[in-house]
Write a structure and sequence with these properties.
Elements (H helix, E strand, L loop, with lengths): L4 H10 L16 E5 L2 E4 L12 E5 L4 H16 L4 H10 L7 H11 L2 H5 L15 E5 L5 E3 L2 E2 L11 H16 L5 E4 L2 H11 L21 H7 L14 H18 L3
Parallel strand pairs: 3-4, 3-7
Antiparallel strand pairs: 1-2, 2-5, 5-6
Helix pairs in contact: 2-3
Length: about 260
Amino acid sequence: MPASFADFRELVLAADLDAIAAPVQIPPAWLLARAGAISAHYIPFDYLNPAARVVLAGISPGFVQWKNAVREAQRLLRAGAPDADVLRAAKYTGAFSGAIRPNLVALLDHVGLQRWLGIDSCASLFHEHAHLMHVTGVLRQPIFVDGKNYNGASPNMLTTPVLQQQMLDYFAPEAALLKDAVFVPMGPKVALALHWLAGRGVIDGRRILHGLPHPSGANAERVAYFLGRKDKAALSSRTNGDQIDVDRALLLARMAALGGG
């Protein structure tokens, strides 16, 4: 039976977060699953926005996100807030903050998602049109490998039973309720996971908007080329401009098929 906030409410209230400085220090009561070096731990990310029309899907929350989410949930619980408000606030604490947000907005606007949503810019998804967006991870609970944040590469989540089960237990039920939404994978590993789930009938593969470069600052050159801000001739050897051209064209065609772009 998948874990829920009700199972962990008292743990959230009692957590001594100042004493937890690394994943290995998360108390055993938070553990959901373990297989060898892999561990999965509960985070208060139960909130689901059933009205969402766009789902931004990452890999998995990291340790800092775990700690921030638990801290925010704890603060609001102690203030007497209703559980629904606690979970929504915990989910969105720091979501896509920093340099990643303007890159993400520019990429989404570039392929015409704002027109499909009927808004001026995807920037408003973080403000007045937040009701149109849901943020999650294909691995909704934090995953650590040898006590470090899981990066989606090793082990392969599509061939590792404990990670497959985490996707099916937590992400799949969310995705199944979001029939009218499009799914934006944050990077190629997430795209592969979404298509793996589509192959199992969890989501409609036509609604997966794969092909966007990851919007992190470390991926600045790929983002700039995708957006037409850098010439192909000026690209470094680390960036495959031809592949980005193919990805962009396929993504624009997918948006056109949905009625946007």
